[in-house]
Each structure stands twice: as C-alpha cells, then as structure tokens.
Amino acid sequence: MESVVSWNRTLSVVGGRRLVVVLGVLYVGLATGLALTELTVGTPLGNVFITSLLIAGPGAVLLYGGYRVPTFDIDPVFYTTIAGWCLSGFAAMIAVLVVYSLQPGEVVDELSTILILTALATVAGFASGIYDAKAKTRTRELEARNRELQATQTELEETVTRLEEVNRKLSESNQRLEHHQAYTDRVLNAIDDIFYVLDPDGTLHRWNESLCEITGYSDSDVASMTALDFIDSNDHERVTSAIAEGFETGSVQLEATLRTSAGEQLPYEFAASRVETPGGEPALAGIGRDVSERMARERELERRASQQQVVADLGQLALETDDLDELMHDASRQVATVLDTDYAKVLDLDDAGEELLLRQGVGWDDGLVGTATVAAVEANSQAAYTLKQDRPIVVEDLETDGRFSGPALLTDHDVRSGISTIIGPVDDPWGILATHDTEPKRFTDEDVSFVQSVANVLAETIERQQYRTDLEDLVVDLEESNKRLEQFAYAASHDLQEPLRMVSSYLQLIERRYGDELDDDGQEFLAFAVDGSERMREMIDGLLQYSRVETQGDPFEPVDLEAVLEDVRKNLQMKIDEHGAEITVEDLPRVEGDDGQLRQVFQNLLSNAIEYSGEQSPRVHVSAERDGTTWTVSVADNGIGIDPDEQDRIFEVFQRLHSRETHSGTGIGLALCERIIERHGGEIWVDSEPGEGATFSFTLPAVGAASDRETGVRSV
C-alpha cells in the first residue's frame, strides 16, 4: 500500500498529463532516431517507413492525447490515473516480451519490435486510462452529491427535531399559543414547503397556505379531505402504514407521489413527528418537501455513471477479445440499452467509400444484419450526411429535419430520432455508429458524448487490430526475406567452391612445374596468390557454415557442456601447448541444444582467447551461472581486450579488428557463434576494456528439471 501511495505521489509531482506527453515525444524521438540509424546501415526505405510509422504513430497519439486531456471532462486529480495506465500498458508488454523470450527457441531482441509493441501497449493503456479517469470523475461527482444529500437529510432531521421542540412547547403553552395563533399562521404560511398536522384517521387538523398553492385545492376542499386524497393511489398502502408507524414510534419519514387537483404528480419527501393538540389529543406534525430536482439530478448522475461504466466495460472487452464483431454487437446492445432506444447499428464503409454495410446491430428485422446496405453518397441519407461532418449528428424528429429524410433502412423501421457519429478519423472513416428510436426524442450532451466514446473504443480496437495484422505480415515478410538470403548465401558460397578449387590446383601446378624458373618477385607473387586462394576457401567454408546454421543443424537434445568442452580442448591441444595456455573450468551444466554447433562455439571462443593473448601466457576461465530456466556461460581471458566502440562490430560477418599479418582468421567466427546462439534462443555479448582481457558470455536453455551441479574449479 505504501508503494502505491509513493508511486501516485511520484506521478503527481511529475504530472500525469506531462508524463503522457513526454512518452509521446519519447516514442516520436525514438522512431526518428531509429529511422536515421536504419537508413545509415542501408535498410530499405519502405521497411524504415513502416517501422517508424508503427512507433511514431502511437507516440503521436500519446502526444496529442496528452495535449487534449483537459477537454475530456476529467478531473485533473485523475491525470495521474491516465499516466499510470500508460505505464501499466508499457510494463505489461515488457513482461510479455520477457516471458516470451524465456521460452526455448523464442526471443524478441529487435529494438524496433520492442518499441512497436510497447508503444501500442502504452496507447492501449492511455485509452483505458481515459475511460478509468472519466469513471472515477463521475464517481467523485456522485460522492459529492451523496454528501449533499446527507447534509440535506441532516437538515431535515434537524428541522423535525426543531418541530418536535416547537410542538412540545406548544403543548406546554396552549393558552399562550391561542393568543398567538395569527402570528403562528403567518410563520407557517411563510414556509415554501408544505406544513401539515394529521389526526390518527388521516384528516388534516391544520395546514399552511403552501399546501393549497401547490396542490390547487382550496381551504374548504382540504378541510374535507384526508391525507390519502393528496397521494397517488399506488402509494396509499405505504402512506397508511407510515401514518400508523408515526403515531406508534413518534416519528416517520418516507417518499411518495403528491397528486394535484390538475392531475399532476410530484415526487415529495415527508417527515413528521407525534405531537399533542391543545386539547391533548395525539397528532402528527410534519413537512413535505418537493424532491423533483434532487431526483432528476440523481437520475442524471446514475445515467452518466452507467454510460461511463459501459464505455469502461467495452474498453476492457476490446483488450480481451480478438472478435471485432462480438465487440460491435455488444457495443450496439449496450448503447440501445443505456439510451433506451429501439435500434443501434454499426455500419462498415467499403473501400470505395460508396456503400455502408449493416455489419452489426440490434432491433432490426431478421436477416438485415450482415446483408443490408446504405448509400454513403446518397443526398437524403443520414449516414452520408454523417460522413461529411466532423461531429456527431443528432436528430430529434426525422419528419421535421430538413437535412435529410432517409434512407429506407430508417423510414421502413419508423425511425424518428437518433444519434450517429463516425468511427475513426474524419478524413479516413472506418464506418458509423448510430442509435435510433421510433419516437421523437431529445438527447443530452452527455448522451452524444457517450455514443462518441463508444465509437472511439471501436475505432481504437479496429486500429489496434490493423496494426497487429500489419505487424504479423511484416514478420512473415522478414522471415521469408531471411530464408531467401540464407538460400542465396548457401548457393553463392557452394557454387564458388568449384572454380576456387580449380584456381588453387593450377596455382599449385605452376608452383611445382615452374617454381624454379621464377625470380624472387614471381615466387612472392605466386605465394600471395596461393595464400589468397587458401584464405578465400576458408572464408567460403565459413560462409557455408554460417548460412547452414538453421537448415543443417541437428535437433535439440540434452547436451553435456563438460563433454563438449573436453572435446574442444583435445582439438586445440597443439595450440594450447604451443602458447603455454592455462584453462580453468567450473562445473558446467547440461543444456538443450545442438551438440555439434555448441562445440563450434566453444572452439571459436577458446581459440580466440588463446590467439589474442598478447605477449603473456594465455589464461582462460570458463564458468556458468543459472538464472531460472536459463544458463549463462562465460569464457574469460587475460588477453589484449577490445575497445568498447568495437564490441558490436566484431559479431558482424567478415569484420576484423586486426590485420592478417598480426592475427589470422576469416572474420566470421564470432558471427557464426552469434548465429548459433540465436538459433538456441539465447544471446551472446562481450565485456572488455583494452589491455584488460575480454569475457564472452552467452545464454542457453536449461534441461527440464535437471538439478544444479555443485560449484567447483579445476585446472585443465
């Protein structure tokens, strides 16, 4: 609880609206920076544009939304709620990505993908925050009204108490009250509310002028009437019971419908206390107060709260379901229910912008939903008129509305009134949300805002699904592109093998037959050519291995890394002895992987550690540490180290930091290691400073429920 309070206090200091704007600016900035970076490395412009749009688009929504928050009828105290939802959406997506990346063989490590998903999740959180903040604002208004009602109740109780005190004094001073009857009448007649005194049989013993003014009955009429004559017949039983309760308990309070002489019915609240008449007889004295305005305000607040709850529920459903038609049907049903209308519909605009399909709706004749269409360009069509406007269209009576007269879908169903609004942006609408009634009807501004809010939920859901579809298509395209690149690399390197063998064979033949006839320069040139062909062969072999990591690898199975390392040590024994290398190894685990490929990783890393040891004897330490279902294996050396600015470049194909005169190699070994580790669902990196050695680390999935080995160090 303290952490939540602290977090809310932090958001309040930073400013919820400011934080939303900052998030929008951040995503727009990141999209711009990423686009510049991708263009620099030669990424196709189309890919850069799509990626930037998927990141900058949500950023722009956050930026604009943060700027427009003050216009959303939200109490500023709940701006932090909106910011909290944004951060929750961001954190939820980060958690999903982390959980997804923990699965064997799965990883999301592309910065652009992470930015796109977190941006979309943050926008979804922003939408939920808007609805949550609106709901909380309405709740706060209701709470304020409840406090006002409680204050009114207290005032009424105090009034009743004062009346009881007055009646007690009246009973004690009957003689004096008789002399001051005229004065008392003036006081009671000055009260705007109804004052009355009832006998046990319900007849009125006394009343003030307000009773006659409000009900329209004369004093002579009232004198011949009972309390029930002023009350609607549906409330007679309750009023009779209340009168009996008042005489029995000493006080009573209830609400009932007051009926006037003109037949008008008014909601009234009555409160009375038992008193004694000057003659010593029991009576009920009380006040009746008109509560029409209070009840109207309560109904309006309840209506608005119901509308906000529907929007919040639809927003939650939009996050939980992938079925857009289910959401549209539920939205239509909820709108019709809350606004008490006969029809509601969602119209889907076709690609040509000429026709609208009745995609979902309630109240319409059987068979129309999914088949009926409305012209999007017809002059007398309310739908066509709506598409041309930048605000919701309200119709109070279609028969007298001069803007349009149809279409047939409305007139055939006797529609007289309704609200219609665009779903999506005005310049590129997806369709229309509308609700209609068969009677002329007035709609409040809150009703119109409610329909617009539901349309916004639908628009955001449609946009989110389009984003997701585009993203899925992009992933498929990237996978196909990678597959084609792998096939090309394999084919190119494989086809180079034969001409290279021919070149190498003829160079060797020249060296054997004519080597003695060549001068020193000729022999040097020939040696360069032989060496070059050999290095090209090594590079082609490396490229073949690199391109076949995915296609030629063995299925994953439990692999004992200690056995793998032992085989590698044997393969490198001559190099170890030549350099006087010392290799120490902690207990290594069993992992899920490809035995042959993991052997290649260890061989490349150990060979590099020995090769780049500098002038001192190589010392290499291999260790492993478990984190949940993942092992992190590290190979540390005491060599020449790597400049931090070069640490990313060394994992690229054919990238070398040193000349071949100082260090041999093709420049593909670390790129091959990275490709193998990525196939295993892990990642590889290096921590190093020049002259301080280097530590290469990579992650691998653990074997099922294999138990951890005890940690120990031994010398090899």
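Next protein, fold it too.
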Amino acid sequence: MLAPFFLAGALAVAAPILFHLIRQHPKGAMPFSSVMFLREVPPRLTRRSRLDQWPLLLLRALALLLLAAAFARPFLRGAADQFNDTPVRRIAVLIDRSASMQREDLWDQAVKKAEAVLTDLSAQDQFAVFVFDTETDRIWETSLAATSDERQSALALQALTEIQPTWRATDLGSALREAADWAQWPTESRTPAEDNSSEAEPATRNQPPGPASIVLISDLQDGSKIDALQQNTWPEEVTLDIRRVVPTEQGNATAIVMNDQTRENLQESTGNESNRQLPIRVVNSKLASRFDLTLQWDDASDKQTIQVEADATQIVRMDQPADSATAIVLSGDDSPFDNTIHWVAPEKRSYRLLYVGASEDDPRESLFYYLERVPLDNATRTVSMETVAVPQLPSDLDPRECPLVVVGDVATNDSFSQTLRTYAEAGGRVLFVMDESDSASDVLNCLAAITDDDSLSTQEAKIDDYAMWSRVDFSSPVFASMADPQFNDFSKIQFWNHRDVSGLEEADWNILATFDSGAPALAQSGNIWLLTTGWQPSSSQLALSTKFIPLIAQMFSGNERVATSVAGHVVGTPLPWPPTEGAELVRSDGESSPYEQASDADFVDRPGVYQLKLPDEEPITFASNLSESESQTDAMDEDTLERLGIGLGEAATAEKLTQATLQLRDRELESNQRLWQWLLLAAIGLLVIETLWGGRYAKRIA
C-alpha cells in the first residue's frame, strides 16, 4: 500500500457497532403530570444490550473498511516486480587542496568525508574524483577497462591518499565549472579512446540514468575565486552537495608588505624616519578571538607588539632589516599557516634611455624636452635620459643597459643603420619618430636598411582641421595598460599633421593605431616602432595627454628583467621572467631545477626565497608568497553560490536512492492497477444497499 497510514481509518468501524448498542428513546410520548422534579437519564449499555439487525451492521462496517482500504492505495506486487532496477548515479567528488587546507586537520577531515562518499557508491555508479587549487586535476574516473567495478572506490581512495594540500590559491569557480561539465550525463556514447576515458553509458549496464551531483569538500573560505561561475548557466540537472570542513580555531590574521622599497632606500641615512621603514598592513579576520599580535624579522630581532581588533586593519612600520633578514614573522593569531611573509629587497639597477637627434632652438618644440619628463624611475631602477647627435651614435649599444632608443633624426650612411640593426637584433627597442615631413624619406631609407624591405613610401597627409586616432589595438602590450574603459578614450588627442606611410601591412608590419583617415599612426615590426607624427605641441597634443607617459613607459620596460615587487611572486602564478635555455631555479635549501620552459615554474611550489640564475647575467633573487586571498579564511555563505544559479541539495545515498526507486516503481504499479477505484465502487454499492435496507427497517419500526 502506498499510504498505509490511511488504514487507521478502519477504526471508524467501531462507530456503527457503538450506535447499535446504544438504545434509542421510544418514539411514542405519553403526557404525564409534572415531571420537573424527575432527572432525565439516558439509556445505558448493560449486559442485556444486544445487537439488532446484523446485516445492516455488517454493510456499514464493510463500507467503512473498503473506504479506508481505497485511501491506502493498495496494489499487487508480483515476483517479477521484486527486481531492484536502481538508477546509476553520476557523482563528481571535488576536494579542495588549496593553501587554506593546510590549517589544523582540515585535510584529514576532507579525506574522511571523501571516503564516506566513495564507500557508499555501488558497482554501477559512475564517479570521478577532482582536486583543485588554482588548477583542477582529475585524479580518478570510473573505467570499465581498468579493473572490476567493485575495486573502483578503493583505488580512487588510494589515489586520494597520495595527494597533499598545496600552497596555491583557490579557484573555486573554475573547479565547479569543470566538475559540472563532467557530471552531466553524456548525450552520446563515447569510445574509450576519447579523453583517455572508457566511460560507459548507463544503457551498457542495463540501468537507467539517475541523479547527477557534485560533492564539494572544502573549507569554503571567503577568498575563494568564483568569477568563472558567472560565465555560463549552471546545468539544471546537476546539484551541488557542500560538505564543509571546519577548523577548531576559525580566526586568522595576516601581514602584507605594502610597497616595494629597495634595500638601498631602507638604509638611507638621510630623510625622515618613516621613509626608512617598511610599511606592513596587518589584517585580522571577523571571527578572530586573539587581538594581541607581534611582528619581527626572522633574524630574531626585537618584536613589535600591536593590537588589532576583529575585522580590522592596522598599518605597522617595521624598522629596516638586517642584510640576513628575508622574512617577516607574525605570531599570536589562531592560524599560523600564513604567518611567514618572505621578503627580498631587489637591488636597484641603473638604465638609460637614449634619444638620437639634434637640439632645437626652442626646447618646447623638441621631442627630447617631453621625453625626459616621463617618470621612469621606480623602487627597482633609476633611468637617466641622454641625448646624442646623429654622428655620435655609439656603436656598442647594450640592450640590457639601454632598453630603448628614440630616433628623431637619422643619418644616410650605412654605419648608422647597421648600428641600429645590430642593437635591435640583440633585443634592443627602437622608436622612429616622423615629426617632420622633410626627414620622412630618410627615416624610410634607414628602415629599409634595417629590415631589408624598401617597399615603404610616404607623403604628407592632407588635414583640414585636425586628425584623431580612430583605432587602437589594445591587445598589444604597448596599449594593454590603457584597455580599461576609463582609460581607452583617445578621441581628445588632436594631431595637427602627420605622414601617410603606405605599404606597412604588405610588409607584415603590425598596425597598432590608425588615424581617422585610416592612415597608420603607430606600427611595429619586431623590436622596431614607427610613429608617423611627432608629440611636441607643433605636431600634436600627444605629449600633453595622459596617454604619453604609459605609452613610453611600456616601450621602455619591455626588456626589463627585475621583480615587480618585494614579495615578488605568488605561489601558483607564472614567473615574470620568460624561460631561457640554460636558466636555473634554486631554492634556499639548495635544491635546483632547470627553467627552460613555462612548466618548469611549478618548481616554485611553496613560499620561500628563490634565485633565478640566467646565463651571463647576475642572479635574480626573489620571494614567493601565498596569495592574499588564501588568508581570507572566514566562511563563505552558501547563499553566495545559490544566487549564481547553482542548485544546492544533498547527494542521494545508495540507500535513499534504492528506497526512492522502490517507491517510484510501487507508484507506477499502483497507477497501472488502480485497485482503489474498484474498492471505492464497492464501498459506494454497499452504502446504497445499506441506505435501502435502513429505510425499510425504519418504516417497519414505525
């Protein structure tokens, strides 16, 4: 019976019996003298009470029993219906292995929760085990060709025990997206050769497809990146079951180096005291229970005690470190996994920018006047601006010492062109500026000698009032820093004159910017740029605009090989230096690894101080630290995921799925048999007979 509790209604059969036993008042009334002093006593059941009209009683009782049985929805189950055709589950087990899982015993908790999920799987279920941090790896997937189904869960658990949490950040969005793609039931059968998978369709196991779900095992901390979830719609058939691991102490504090002051700046003997100290931002979490914290350098220097309330931030200035100090240690908080901040002060390097051209009578009409006012100095470099006449161009230019040469005037001799060609082939960058129509043809002749292509031609562009840049290639590194909508407007820069150079596209030059007439404004070929106008006020407003500084700065910084900050590098992100043949990465413990391809950067897999040894160059020492997001350990609200369209729900266990399958099959049997209709018709028939019988009996008594 689908609703056996309705059988309790059969207890109502006692009502007719009770009514039969209760004697009714006689119908005849005899007038009598005053009865006001007599007490009315209803009939009572006595031993002499007896049942009358047995057939009528049985009709009423049987009608009630049939009604109760009809509401209980009975059905008949045959021997063939005993087979349990349980649907196949498709489950993706997604386990967080990011740096925040290094806290306390969170990883052990995660393995135990994963074991509970895997041991509940049946031989017919399909499942995969994923681990994720900044990347998502599938460490196990059910495969009919690998081994028997009964051993799949045990082998998957064995593969999981070989995994340990990393020091990388948490990209939860990408991991959920990849797991959801796998968890959806395939619409077409796949062969074992596809994706190195021998995944079988449910039909091959003679089982219907069941629920698809993801079991997420994570601390689900606030710093998890979920941007990828906004790119596509979440599949409706996939549910997310969150099984959170929770540390005993949920508070956490972290320290962050705020700027990239070099050791040279820190050790200056002049200037105010604040300029000779390193600013540190200390952040305490919302759930913090400890507020008294200490900071010190790892060389056992004096401790600096501070007090930071929960969900608060405080700026602390650390005294200049000793030469041996390479880390700042925070102590006193609940979670020490992120309390060491490795720090290396990069050596300040000296560079120069060379301008080739004659001096102008009016300095404000000189290209160099505006070029030397571009601030290229920062905490890791000093840049000197130099100008040389065309005949005095040095023949031994070193790109590592002079990353950029700006050419305003050219010489017609071969030695000038050969010097620039040798410099560009060695990695140097050259910017040719056509600021005058008279020298435009000489610039093209010089370019032809450098590039071995004399197909370019030029003429003065005809401009009625002024010209503007109409198309800018923001995918180019030169303009990438200005790609944001609040910076990418070049329409306010007016150009009074420019040269129309033809043949650039045919010569495989990359056009980075064009004028509104379609003529090239800035073109690039390898390490050589060509600007077809000047930036001084007589030619344009470019030097007076906000675009000029980032444009020149990006051209200059292309060959720089220095760390971008004191912290230097975040574990799990690419190194800022390209792989080089013969390069080597060295840890502080002496272990080393080649750095000849991008994947070799995986050697930097933990916080610490590293050294990059490049051929024929000074070694570069840099620090690698945790991502700041991993220190945001407060728990993320599950509603955050639900608002992104993810369906949350508990993954069905084998027992619950079996029960649900049995209930579904029973409902189908009951729906097909419809025995309740026959019971209801029988009850109505009995009530009709009872009504007729009762009517005859009442007339006879009367």
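About the second fold: Residues 189-205, 561-566 have pLDDT under 50 and may be disordered.
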